[in-house]
Amino acid sequence: MSTANARGVFSAIPALFGKDKDSDCDVLFRLELLCPERKATEEEEAEEEQPRKRPRLQCETVPLSTEPHAGALVGEPLPGHLFVLRLASERLRAQIERWDGGAGDRAAQGAGASSSSVAPRPQLHVPLGSEAEVPFARAAIGFASTGVVAADGVRAALEVRRQAAYLQIDGCTAACDELLLGMLAACSSSSRAGSVAAAADRAGSSSAAVEFMACWAQLPDPAEEPTFSPVLAAAKQALVRHFGDAQAAFNTPSSRQQLLQLPAAGVEALLGSEAFGTDSEDSVLLLLATWMKANHGQTDAATRRQLCRLVQLVQLGRPYLTVVVPVLAADHETGAAGSPCAWFPISIAEAGFITTLATAAAGVEKDRLLLRTAARPQCLPEEGRTFEWVISQQELREALDELEPEEPYNVDASFAGDYLCARGLEWKLFLEVEHEATSAGIFITCILPAAYYVTGSSVGSSKAIAVVGLEARLAVHGWRGGARQTAFKNGFEASDFAFDLGRLLNSTGRGWSSALPLAPPQQAGADGGGGGDVLTGWAPYLRDGRLTGTLTLLPVP
After folding, report:
1. What are the boundaries of the region Disordered (predicted)?
2. Which contiguous run of DSSP H or E holds residue 474?
3. Phi first, then psi: what are they for 121, rounded to 5°?
């Protein structure tokens, strides 16, 4: 055969897949008889190869929600070509050889039949765990003819790979791995670290890394399939790039939701990566506490211990070292084993040692070597990371309508991500307005995040004192002639902010009481006779029914 003819033959093979034309066998899919692990004995496999007819419906009452029974054929028979399947799959080749071995017996049995009878076509059986596996088994077999993995996503590629590994289809698992690596690389190249907006863009789309982790329980064991190790490593790296850093993951609602849905292995990949950045280690512990509160029932003691070991305790800030960690330790020692409040496996003595070590002078570097001490990458750039906040005109109007003489009223701002967490704490911004005042104040305060309020925990009831600070720039927008301006700006420094640890760490906040001058009279007409609008004095700050501004978080100097 000439080279040109050979190329013509090879190019014609892909078009044969799934077609009756020139087919000489049928591939049948049926539910496994005994176990989903496909540990059938050789006798059972031989039995499967005997020709059988597609089962007919029985004349009996069938429940409305009947699942196919074990041994039932599922899906449509797939026309096959023996010369392709024999060369492509060891498992199918074994079935074909057994069929060929029984051809003489079948010929003898049919010797008395009329000459017009047609010899039965070989029937090759593929056992499946459920009917949902049919398209993936077909795709794996299709690779033998087309050389293409027909999978439109991570889950589909993993399912095709699983079927190909069982059927031992030559080259298919490697092709699936290559496809998965490409999907993960595409996910990584579209990830842009450094901003919450970028994190929102990443999380808003379907991430190959997140989809991969959702299939964790179905992944092959690298110990049994070493060729899968590069895919697993690439998935972990892509997951880190997808979430970006602890602060972005937490302050982006879609990312936070994806985080809560990760298996423990996904969280371990994040916390164990040297590339996973944060503004402080406090945010890493908060991220783990948030995940643990939602997924405690899916973990065991060994898993919790492994995850908690990934937190770099000596890198925690003073609020966590002096308040949060000791209380978590007390919860662990006093709570019932396995209870949600006792999730962090650390003793009070260990907590005290770590606090002493972390706050000691520089002369104890030898002792620090006992613990993982290398700080994670700082996720906040020098220019900071900016978060937008807003107070609606309606919220402001309602607050002004409620004003009473000598009774200030606080109006909370909303951040784009529902709330803002930094340095392991939740920060709140609010305006302080007063009756007939010529200016309004703006303040910031913080609370202990809800992740630490677990039934049975003593964190929320503690009265210990913490010292909390924040490096940030605050801005309030103003408008003149349709153009946006900065009506007010100032900064916070991480210096001696005393907060008492209850539900509120600080009930008053820090800020400026006369930050926003108001055009008088603020309350014109609010007393019942003037007919004016309570928002008159706020006109320079309102645009499209909102008062807006920004809070820019800065790295600790």
Report:
1. 103-122
2. strand 472-480
3. -75, 145
Give residue-wise pLDDT tens across range 461-495.
Answer: 555 567 788 899 999 999 998 899 999 999 988 76
Contact 445, 430 (CB under 8 A): yes
Task: Identify whether the C-beta of residue 170 lies closer than 8 Å to the C-beta of residue 88.
Answer: yes
Peptide bond into 521 cis (omega under 30): yes
**Distances, alpha carbon 496 to alpha carbons 34, 315, 490, 509, 510, in Å:** 68, 19, 18, 13, 11
Please say whether the beta carbons of 135 and 2 come within 8 A. Answer: no
Q: In this structure, what token pair is assigned to residue 178?
A: 């290559």
Spatial separation of the C-alpha atoms in residues 15 and 5, rounded to whole Å: 16
- Structural contact between residues 331 and 458, judged by C-beta atoms closer than 8 angstroms: yes
**How far from the centroid of its chain's Cα atoms is residue 198's Cα?**
16
Q: CA angle, 269 as apex, 349 and 345 as ends, to 5°? A: 20
| Secondary structure in 3-state letters for 205-267 | CCCHHHHHHHCHHHCCCCCCCHHHHHHHHHHHHHHHHHHCEHHHHHHCHHHHHHHHCCCHHHH
1 has a pLDDT exceeding 50: no
Residue type, 21: K
For the CA atoms of 305, 308, 310, 313, the dihedral, rounded to the nearest 10 degrees, stands at -130
Determine the residue type at 102: G
Whole-angstrom CA distances from 525 to 392, 438, 522, 534 are: 21, 15, 9, 7
Three-class secondary structure of residue 73 per DSSP: strand
Q: DSSP letters of 290-319?
A: HHHHHHGGG--HHHHHHHHHTS-GGG--HH
Q: At what angle do helices 196-204 and 229-243 cross, to 10 degrees?
A: 130
Q: What is the pLDDT of residues 326-361, one digit of tens each?
A: 999 999 999 888 899 999 999 999 999 998 888 776
CA distance 16 to 50: 25
DSSP letter (8 states) at residue 322: I
> Half-sphere exposure of 510 toward its Cβ, with a 13 Å CA cutoff?
20
Residue 59 is given by DSSP the state S
Backbone φ and ψ for 126, nearest 5 degrees, come out as: -120, 110
Does an H or E element contain 550, and which? strand 546-553
Q: Which domains, from first to last, does the chain contain?
A: 12-54+69-102+121-176 (3.30.710.10), 190-368 (no CATH), 385-553 (2.60.210.10)
Predicted local distance difference test score (pLDDT) of residue 68: 65
Choose from 24-38, 308-322, 500-514 the range with maximum mean pLDDT: 308-322
Alpha-carbon distance of 6 to 13, in angstroms, equals 11
Residue 127: HSE in the Cβ half-sphere, 13 Å Cα cutoff? 22
Q: What is the pTM of this model?
A: 0.82
